[in-house]
Design brief:
- With 296 residues, the chain is α/β, with parallel strands linked by helices.
- The protein has a single domain, classed as Alpha/Beta hydrolase fold, catalytic domain (Rossmann fold, 3-Layer(aba) Sandwich).
- It has 8 helices and 9 strands.
- It has helices at residues 9-28, 33-37, 49-53, 109-114, 132-148, 168-179, 222-228, 253-267, and strands at 61-66, 77-82, 90-96, 118-123, 156-166, 185-189, 205-210, 235-240, 287-292.
- It has a 9-stranded mixed β-sheet with strand order 1-2-4-3-5-6-7-8-9, sandwiched between helices.
- The longest helix is centred in the N-terminal third of the chain and has 20 residues, at 9-28.
- Residues 38-59 are annotated as: Disordered.
- Keywords: Hydrolase, Signal.
- It comes from Saccharopolyspora karakumensis.
- InterPro entries: AB_hydrolase_fold (IPR029058), FrsA_esterase (IPR050261), PET_hydrolase/cutinase-like (IPR041127).
Length: 296
């Protein structure tokens, strides 16, 4: 884990404390370097059930429209980002819509996730009929734009990037992770792909399926995807009870809670969010199935 994540007097003071604590720990044997470094990477207050299920998190959010005419490799979109940029770098995630969908179908995720402390890019694809592998390439192109050319590039830690997507966009997120081992987290939503083996994915992946999905039935898509993923460094399968394929197109507290927790845990290395992922939730009427390699 890098200690130099941000600049400014407060950051330098934090790093001095981190290094001092690490040195003392090496002497006393009571503190590891990882434990000492962790506080410098935390974004926001200690999470609670109320904070991860709230419609908005602790960060104020602004947004910027990106025209398809100003980019290459994807169809533009909207960037949502925290406005409190003092002394911190944020992880970033790009999200692809599904077949025939536009960014409007996933727009609710933008401000909801960004308010938890992420830069979020909800993208349009080149064509609404683009297949999953094309969407994978477009997700990567959008991340390249975010980190190299966007107006918010200086807010982003380029070492902490993830992808999400709905339907064919979800299948695209899996393919993107297969193609780019540098990605740190993946969250496919009711994913669809003709490929069923994603054993080569190295990023922690949360597959969210829908119990009553007739477009991408979980028995032929979400579950085989999950089962093919390696146990290490971590995976989970969450099934939305009674939900259809289009559940991710509407504001959904369960999707938001677990997506936020997964991204916080694996993009930000924030172990405070383990409590929402491990042990698996029990007795939640919104969840019909939950499996994972807990503990991570």
């Amino acid at each position: 884990m890098e200690l130099k994540r941000s600049t400014g007097p407060l950051s330098r003071f934090r790093r001095l404390l981190v290094v001092s604590a690490a040195v003392l720990g090496l002497v006393s044997g009571s503190v590891t370097l990882a434990q000492a470094a962790e506080p410098a990477d935390l974004h926001g207050p200690d999470p609670t059930e109320e904070s991860v299920t709230a419609p908005r998190g602790p960060f104020e959010v602004d947004e910027e429209s990106v025209s398809r005419l100003s980019v290459t490799g994807f169809g533009g979109g909207t960037i949502y980002y925290p406005t409190d940029t003092t002394d911190v770098l944020f992880s970033a995630v790009s999200i692809s819509p599904g077949y025939t969908g536009t960014q409007d179908s996933i727009a609710w995720l933008g401000p909801r996730l960004a308010s938890q402390g992420f830069v979020v890019f909800t993208i349009d694809t080149n064509s609404t009929s683009d297949q999953p592998d094309s969407r994978a390439r477009q997700l990567q192109a959008s991340l390249d734009y975010l980190t190299n050319d966007s107006s918010v590039k200086d807010l982003i830690d380029p070492a902490r990037l993830g992808v999400m997507g709905h339907s064919m966009g979800g299948g695209g997120s899996l393919k993107a992770a297969l193609d780019n081992p540098a990605l740190k987290a993946v969250v496919p939503l009711a994913p669809w792909h003709t490929t069923k083996d994603f054993s080569g994915v190295g990023a922690p992946t949360l597959v969210i399926g829908a119990q009553n999905d007739t477009v991408a039935p979980v028995s032929r898509h979400s579950k085989p995807f999950y089962e093919s993923l390696p146990d290490d460094p971590g995976k989970a399968y969450l099934e939305l009870a009674g939900a259809s394929h289009f559940a991710p197109n509407r504001d959904n507290t369960t999707i938001a809670k677990f997506s936020t927790s997964w991204l916080k845990r694996f993009l930000d290395d924030d172990t405070r969010y383990d409590q929402f992922l491990c042990p698996p939730p029990e007795g939640d009427p919104a969840i019909s199935d939950y499996q994972s390699t807990c503990p991570y």
